[in-house]
Each structure stands twice: as C-alpha cells, then as structure tokens.
Amino acid sequence: xxxxxxxxxHALDRTEVRSxxxxxxxxxxxxxxxxxxxxxxxxxLGAPPIFxxxxxxxxxxxxxxxxxxxxxxxxxxxxxxxxxxxxWTLFRTVPFIRPYGFDALRDSVIIMYGVFSYIVIGxxxxxxxxxxxxxxxxxxxxxxxxxxxxxxxxxxxxxxxxVPYLPGTQVGIIHLGAGEVPVHLAGAAVFALxxxxxxxxxxxxSLVMAVLMASALNRxxxxxxxxxxxxxxxxxxxxxxxxxxxVAGLLIFSAAYAVEKSLTGDQVVARQxxxxxxxxxxxxxxxxxxxxxxxxxxxxxxxxxxxMAASAAAPFATSPAAA
Length: 323
Prior knowledge:
By secondary structure, this protein is an all-alpha fold. The protein is 68% helix and 1% strand. Mean pLDDT is 79; it is low at 268-275 and 295-312.
C-alpha cells in the first residue's frame, strides 16, 4: 500500500513539473515572438542588468534542471560541439574580464545563449508531443508576422522619429534591425518550403518585400536569407520553383534598375549606413560588395558577425547584453 501511494505521489509530482514546464515553453515562445515583432525594443524590457532575455534564460535553466535530463542533452554530436564551443568561449573570456570589463562579457554572450538549445532539448526529451505544439504555434504566428514584417520594418527604418522610446532609454518601442529581420524571414521561408505552412500570394509578396528592404541596408542580412533558403530548396527538390521565382524577380528588378539609371544617370553619391535607401542601385551595390570592394567605399554593415553567426545568434542577438 505504501509503495502504491508513493508511486502515485511521484506521478503527481512529475505531472506538476511538466505543467510548469509547459507554461515555460509558452513563455519562451512568447519571448521569441516579442523579439521578432519588436526587436531591440522588446529586448530592453526589464531593469539593468536583468532584461527579458536573462529572465527567460534563468527560468529556462531551472526548468532544464527540473526535467532531470540535463546530461542527456550532451549525447548528440551537435550538443557536444556546442558545449565545447561554450567552454572555449568561457576559457577565452575570463582572462580578459579585468582589462576589458563588461565588453568581454558582451562579446561572449552570443555563444553563451546556446544554453537555450539545451533547454529546448530537455523539454522535447521530456515530452516529444511538444514538438507538434511548437510547429502549430509557429504556423499560426507566421500567418500574421510575415505580412506585418515589411510594415513594421519600414516604419522603424523610415519613420523612426515617430516611434516612442521605452521609458529611461534611447531605444524605440519597436526597433527592428536590417540584420535580424532577414534571419526571421529565412526561418519562415524554410518552414514553408518543407511543407509546414502553405503560403498565400500576399504572404509571399510580403516576405519578398521585407527581404528586399532589409537587403538594401545590410548585405549580411541578404546572405542570412539567401543561403539557408537556397540550401532548403535544393534539399527539398524545389530548386526549379525557386529559380522561376528568382528569374521573375530579376526581370522586374532589372526593369526598375534601368528606370532608375535613366532618371538619375551614372552619378555616384556617397552614402553612409543610415542614409541608405531602398532602391535597385543600393541592392546592386550590396551584392557587388559581397564579392569585392564597394564603389562607395563604405562597409555594407557595421556588424562584425558573419551571416552564419548572425543566424545562430538570432533572435537573442538583440538583447541589451549583446548590443
């Protein structure tokens, strides 16, 4: 009788743990949605030095330990590689804290946010059904996020003076960067390519528009979208469909570029990062600068991250700790 009551009690405890862990998963999804929709404005929610990203990380660490599956996260090759990278990052960061202070910690935090990977692994190992829930929630989110992306991004870039600041900061409530938006859109495009979401014409047009707007301002963002989407299209056997879309897009782009050149001539005007405009010549310049020096002599992005690093760091790269 005692063993039976003990077993029942243990089962109830595990059920309660899973209930709290399910709530955390919803919280984490909400945080990710906030980063995607508001960018740095959402990242600054909180009080220094604890912001929303740090809250999610600390709570997630507790959740991971409560699953009892911490060691299981290191049983795969990617998990081991990430652990080695994080250990090496700590090893190369600690000696430089004294001379460089907070800057050393800020540079290392992008890698250390890899803890979120282990948190998600632990949650999925505890209950595999959560993967289906994540896919369903993400599909619902993309239904309105992608159509809203060009509107939100355009508002942040071209009407930034109208965006109110968060109290006590110089950061707009909505602050979407040209480097992070294509990363989110790449995830949306790959999600649709593998068959988890059936896009509409409006959805596709919105995605293309947002990518072009961001690519005109940031070549790293351009690559962060093009590379994963191309790889996914090839692996899914949909490369021909992508080629058709690209060819049609290039024809429209070439026409727009020709019209711009006929109106402005070949006059070259030096542009600074914040003065870049959404126009065909700017996209051409960014594409050329990927393979060689830009004619304008200015870097296409102030970011020191490679597109691969940007993809790995997003969406938490907007955190104040990584800013």
